[in-house]
Amino acid sequence: MRALPLRLALALFACALPVTPASAQQPGFPGNAVGVFLDCHTWYCDFDHFRREITWVNWMRDRQDADIHVLVTQQETGGGGSALTLAFIGLRQYAGREDTLEYISDADDTEAEVRDGLTQTLKLGLVPFVSASPVGQRLGISYEAPPDAALAGPSATRDPWNYWVFELGIGGEMELESQQRFWEGEGSIRANRTTEAFKITLRGSYSGSREEFDFTDEDTGADTTVVSTRTFLETDALATWSLTDHWSVGAMAEFDRISVINYDAAIQVGPAVEYNIYPWAESTRRQLTILYAVGVGIYEYARETIFLKTSEAHPIHQLEVSTEIRQPWGEVDASLEWFQYLHDVDLHRIELDAGVSIRIVRGLGFELYGSVARIRDQIYLPLEEATPEEVLTQQLARGTEFRTELHVGLSYRFGSKFNNVVNPRMGGGF
Questions:
Q1: Residues in contact with 247: Cβ distance below 8 Å, sequence separation at least 6, in sequence order
Q2: Pairing of strands 364-375, 402-412
Q3: Among candidate residues 202, 227, 237, the one with its CA nearest the CA of residue 390
Q4: How far apart are CA 270 and CA 22, in angstroms?
Q5: DSSP code of residue 429
Q6: Which long-range contacts link 84-91 to residues 24+ away (Cβ below 8 Å)?
Q7: Which of 229-243, 386-400, 409-423 has the lowest mean pLDDT?
Q8: Which terminus of the chain has fewer CB atoms gathered within 10 Å of its CB, N or C?
């Protein structure tokens, strides 16, 4: 009798398996259609929507089976929108052929509007490849004329805001349970003016939280409430002048008030210079930059530090080398940063952050993300030791000589090479 539930489950599973005659034509796989591999990890890439709207190509799961590799990269525009660059890279019979299109969204566009604009750009980029295939003979061409006002064009080209863009945000969160409570409030402001020759960005953000935990003391039997509060106020300003296709100069300033690291007020300000090995016109596909900044840091502390200071000022400098690469074989993001107080060269921090995602062979992918830091610049540590409650609720930073994080992943996919069908039914599961 114990075997009956297992037999019943197997019978139900067998009944649920699809029965398809061997000679039946599978839907969604147009014959002789061009195979497309979409390589897009931006917020606006709705792959289900693309497959529903563009049914005249075969969507492939692996690059090795495709005729076209579509690589989509994204950068923020000065007005707060997105510049989405679509590189159409020919493979197999289209090897050596490449085209690039760009779609620029407005900051006020909804997610659906950006998605539709990206879909239209994707269609336009695929047409030159598909037109020479058998499916090309079945494509139709239509044109939607703009209204008369759009044909006439704007009455004036002057920008009343002179390229300035402002953004405000406010929010909050609350979580209540019988023995613990959490409140958080946050706000942000941003202003920027971006042109090819000059960029200025002003940003500020605030977040404050309060968390309460109720428990009974095992020794005294008394009811106790532990309260954890944290405050983050961070502001920064950046001005950058474009000198050449590779060189930039600028000035940076930062003001912080962060309770976790004992900052009542912290100011860092100074000039900077940056060099990009590659021309900035190629920034959507590859960057390798070297930035050097020098300045002064002024600090006011909430508690007396381990150096018996409640305030101090020191010269500082920073060197950062970073790279961003988006290529058909995968992605690389890495940065190496060196920060140092010039009054005492032993007070420094060096940090490496890196992420690599590589397609090794068909269906096999490798990911490595991590960071490692040598920390010798914690001049802000309070002289008084943190209480156990402050340690457990992470209200105060503790002394450390290093910090490291690591993620390693390996994935392998096999089976059908087609990726055309969309079926979101019962996607939630238990």
A1: 273, 274, 275
A2: antiparallel
A3: 227
A4: 71
A5: -
A6: 84/42, 84/44, 84/114, 84/118, 84/121, 85/284, 85/285, 86/118, 86/121, 86/122, 86/125, 87/285, 88/125, 88/126, 88/129, 89/328, 90/129, 91/63, 91/66, 91/67
A7: 409-423
A8: C
Any idea which residue has 């990726």 for tokens?
A: 419
Domains of the chain: 29-136 (3.30.160), 164-412 (2.40.160)
The C-alpha atoms of residue 284 and residue 215 are separated, in whole angstroms, by 53
Distance CA 271, CA 250 (A): 6
CB 315 within 8 A of CB 339: no
d(Cα 212, Cα 179) in Å, to the nearest integer? Answer: 8
So what's the pLDDT on residue 150?
A: 52
Alpha-carbon distance of 118 to 111, in angstroms, equals: 11
CA distance 42 to 53: 19
pLDDT digits (tens, 9 = 90+) for 82-93: 888 889 998 888
pTM of the model: 0.69
Whether 243 shows a pLDDT value over 90: the answer reads: yes
Contact 231, 211 (CB under 8 A): no
For 118, phi then psi, to 5°, come to -70, -35
Spatial distance between the Cα atoms of 197 and 164, rounded to a whole number of angstroms: 14
